[in-house]
């Protein structure tokens, strides 16, 4: 078929070369390649085949446009095309090379030639340059220099091409040591864009750490210094063992297969394995299973490939460094013990088969890494030895008693969190030690809340704990930086971090399953039962504080008392707050904000007070109300307000209002209300951030759909509601407070306050919020969140607590508010929590009589909410 298609191009007479016929030929070739891919033709053959086909096309068109008559022109393939590596949507990078500047007539023809290529829907990257241009531009631009390094002759004047290669190979173009340093820095910058991890949930096949670019970097450096034009030639220079060469080729082919499978799904060039394409790519690759099983299998294999490439890249660049920059074998080693020494900033094993003879010494090496801050990594020969020993292990390291003792020594080493655990994960040592860890390596998390796999997330939790020891992080983490240094047994917290998500991917509650694993691990490693109980409890309850702070009314003394009862003592509270914050910050780079920090701080200090007071001693609510009123009244009197007018205003409000607001909030509200026309709505926005957000206070005659209108207007302004206190005065006015954040998770900029105030006032005056229904973001379309409505028991039974879980579609709160109004349900309070694509909202409701909802009312409300949400989902 390939020969037939090639002949088809060659058989066209000049008058037959039309855009339509060429496009048909390219379409037929793409379909032909797709079928061959599904027939399991080796991917290297397909990649080369496409490159050869494009060669034929360009050579035919070169002749068609008469360029073969131009003696001083040559057509050159550069970049990936120069390597003869083309995927279905790859860029076709070409260089039209000339000995002298192009004449205008020839330039016009070149423009027509390139335009046709674009019209054929090829992603063309073209440049027209002289040899001198190539030298001068390439010398100043690393990307251009790299592309030229891979130049391959296609047609035209070959002597010009040979002139170019001679110029490019000269030492004064890019000296190999300068080129090496520049490519190394380029790789560091690229890796940083992906948070220096291979384990992003939507990785880039080409650019992620361990991706194809890491293989290209090796080949570019080898080509520049050694003249090696392939991985095979690299192995001939002795920098790759035969096994490593075969492994790199195997990894490259696996990444090529995934990239090819992705490209046949896309219309436009992209190399990201996004959620919306992972299932189709897995299917193209032949993975099968129920639900997400096919994707999980594909992604685990993909992450394994990335890790292998990243490890080989690290090791081989180190060897290049020794050959190109300095010979580090000449640096005198510093002996650490009979098994290890430091040479430069790298740790080396002193014996060639140390890890195979005594596998537990692998942990000794990481103990040295933890104890010596000057160690930056593992020397290439030692890394080779580790890779070999790791593959030949016939049991997990945890089964070796000496290894268990060393592991606990590592956990108790103060500096282990900084570097050792991350290196252990990167080089597969945690998987070799702990069977449960090996199960979560590359374990996907199918949501928009997490951005890393389970193992990478867990390592970042450990890394975050280390940040709490640094006073420089006190502004970002005030409580944890205060609490963490005084925790005596930090190893218990580290073990909890290791195990908190270790049961994800198994059937059942991962917190409970992980708690069992953690307890058994602790006992096996010589911890006392009380210590094991603390670790197990932390794993089981690692979500408790986050859920309570974000989804419960933490200003309700009952909620705080119940939380304190579960925590039991201050020691556990200190452990839990550190684990909670480290967990949240390791989930998503953008998740931690001042709102969450404030919520957790308020819950922490409220619980601390409750524990010190004694859980049997509940606070006197009436004392707190009187205290708030007295302080607020003092502020108001200092501003000229009379005690009598303050008293008359406050007589209209219920006790709950004074309990749930600070004295400063009471004074702020009262100052505005005492000067306001009560026939009109009053909207206040806090000038300073309140609990990390902007407080929006709404005073108006209570009407149906008021909540829906307010949240609809806020949504229109691209603001998110995170908390709502819905209150009524005794005479039928609302005293509602909404805690609002902007799209960046911050308080609203003050220059927007007037616009927002006017919009809300207008909407509440006409009792209507006119808005176009926004489309759901593209990513949401690929997630299915079943709508769940559940009613929770309350201690007094006077109100109804309702939890709603649904897809976080635009305008969700407004729709929910409309349903409440339709059923004459009054909203008393709301906690709005968005976790990726999931809305997990909490509401306190009463019926028309001001009492809890009956079972019948609950069922009717539940059915209406589910119907409404599913209709718009």
UniProtKB/TrEMBL annotation:
The keyword Magnesium applies. It comes from the Bacteria. Keywords: Hydrolase, Magnesium, Multifunctional enzyme, Nucleotidyltransferase, Repeat, Transferase. Residues 695-778, 801-873 form the ACT domain. Residues 336-694 are annotated as: Uridylyl-removing. One of its GO terms (molecular function) is [protein-PII] uridylyltransferase activity. Its EC number is 2.7.7.59, 3.1.4.-. Its cofactor is Mg(2+). Transmembrane segments: none annotated. Residues 1-335 are annotated as: Uridylyltransferase. It catalyses: [protein-PII]-uridylyl-L-tyrosine + H2O = [protein-PII]-L-tyrosine + UMP + H(+); [protein-PII]-L-tyrosine + UTP = [protein-PII]-uridylyl-L-tyrosine + diphosphate; guanosine 3',5'-bis(diphosphate) + H2O = GDP + diphosphate + H(+). Residues 454-576 form the HD domain. Pfam families: ACT, GlnD_UR_UTase, HD, NTP_transf_2. Uridylyltransferase (UTase) activity is inhibited by glutamine, while glutamine activates uridylyl-removing (UR) activity. Modifies, by uridylylation and deuridylylation, the PII regulatory proteins (GlnB and homologs), in response to the nitrogen status of the cell that GlnD senses through the glutamine level. Under low glutamine levels, catalyzes the conversion of the PII proteins and UTP to PII-UMP and PPi, while under higher glutamine levels, GlnD hydrolyzes PII-UMP to PII and UMP (deuridylylation). Thus, controls uridylylation state and activity of the PII proteins, and plays an important role in the regulation of nitrogen metabolism. Belongs to the GlnD family. Has four distinct domains: an N-terminal nucleotidyltransferase (NT) domain responsible for UTase activity, a central HD domain that encodes UR activity, and two C-terminal ACT domains that seem to have a role in glutamine sensing. This is Bifunctional uridylyltransferase/uridylyl-removing enzyme. It comes from Photobacterium leiognathi. The gene is glnD.
